[in-house]
Amino acid sequence: MILLMIILSVVGGALLSVQAAINGQLGSKVGVFRSAFLTFSVGALITALLIFFFETKHAVTLLEVPKWQLLGALLGVPYIVIMVLAVQRIGTAVATVAVIFGQLAMSMLIDNFGWLHNEAIPFSATRLGAVVCLGIALWFIYSGSKSQAEE
Predict the structure, then answer these.
(1) pTM (2 decimals)?
(2) Is 150 domain-assigned?
(3) What's the domain count of the chain?
(4) Structural domain of residue 61, as residue ranges?
(5) Within a domain: 151
(6) Alpha-carbon distance 71 to 63, whole Å?
(7) Is residue 34 part of a domain?
């Protein structure tokens, strides 16, 4: 089951890169906010259909959860807007690796301190090594795309 979740996560990441590339192109033609609006509108429609046909009943509704948990929905907006802007200027690979770097750094802080009611997972040398390696990867990808653009 763990391997399946890792594979699904990799597929999800791949789909986010495809989405970023498409939205970058769309945003350059129709505008950043229109592109973001389309993303959320279509996403809301598809998610509503998934809820209607597949979601099981839960004991708690969205209106009954702690209100801070609803903030997660707001955090998707800056991500989409930033990616539409960034992909147009720095390319899909650099923007995606930069996002993953930010995700990794913040997720390790969340894990280490147990923020947002998550179980604490202590910081370690191997986790630090992962952040450093990803930072180096970001630098190489950026440097490689920068030199290609100059040629």
Answers:
(1) 0.82
(2) no
(3) 1
(4) 1-145
(5) no
(6) 13
(7) yes
CA distance 86 to 36: 13
pLDDT, tens only, 35-77: 999 999 999 999 999 999 999 999 999 999 999 999 988 999 9
**Number of Cβ within a 10 Å radius of residue 110:** 14
Task: State the Cα–Cα distance between residues 1 and 8, nearest whole angstrom.
Answer: 11
Q: Does some domain include residue 50?
A: yes
- d(C-alpha 93, C-alpha 145), whole Å: 9
DSSP 3-state percent helix, strand, coil across the chain (nearest 5) = 85, 0, 15
Q: pLDDT digits over 96-132, tens only?
A: 999 999 999 999 999 999 999 999 999 999 999 999 9
Give the DSSP letter string of 11-62. Answer: HHHHHHHHHHHHHHHHHHHH-HHHHHHHHHHHHHHHHHHHHHHHPPP-SS-T
